[in-house]
Amino acid sequence: MSCSNKIFLFFLSFLLIHQLESAPSIIPLNGSCTDKCGNIVLKYPFGSSFGCGHPAFSRFIKCTTSGVLQFSTSTGIYTISSLDYSTNTFVLNDPFMSTCSSMQNSGSFTLDHDISTPFSVMKQNIFVLLGCSTTSAVFDPKQDLCDTGSGSNICRGMYSCKGVTGIGLEPNDPISTCCVYVPPVPVGSGYGLNLPRLQCSSYSSIYGFGGDEGDPMKWEFGISLKYNDSYYVDDSCKNCEDSGGICGFAGADESFACICRNGVNTTINCYGRGYAWSGTWSHKIQTEISIGGILFFWMIMLFI
Fold it and tell me: Which of 20, 126, 144, 283 has its CA 20 to 30 A from that of 208?
């Protein structure tokens, strides 16, 4: 074999091997990440499923196949009805929570306590305990667990609703079984509302009065939570979103990943190669070509 042919074959083999070394780190994504769940726009740190958004949020939040954004705690699964990124707040709807139009026996509500939990109950929430036993600890005068000032007006408003028949009361019954609950510890992460222990039939949560404190039908019922937004540790997520990707995580260490529209994720953004490859098959083909290049190179060397 001539010297020029040897040089040509050497460089051809080098280019094939170089494909393996220069291939970007592309990890196929199990499932998919979306930037919308129903009519709610999803932005980091929120995500639609595991691997999307921030790991601390992903343990609590997911989007169902029917497009419902859900929040899970040890006491139940709640629907996120609204999400406000400007105030870092969102509102939960408990399907068993009582409102003016419909009252029913409720379960308990607990916001799991964990040092890494990024959520806390907003102080503006007003928790109302309904249909409580007169022997309940909330009525212990030594405890001051009920707001007997403005809380009395809220109880009167709730008991004026036709919905009270759902918990065995009549409209405008005495409010002696109602308590606007003032928790013994500051409202925040780890908040718990144990209705059986408090001997109450139901609860309601009001996060706004809709501009009319005298009309309970206009009150805004739900549990308003605030989230910690200090999760942009660098510009990685911003760069990912600017390139059309969705911020997420991957691997056992839950390291940052930029999920691209073509179904793959990278560690940087969706521009360039990270966006050009079309997923598992492209990576597989590229790898096979590169391995073939190595075998081809050694075959040449054996016969030179």
Answer: 144
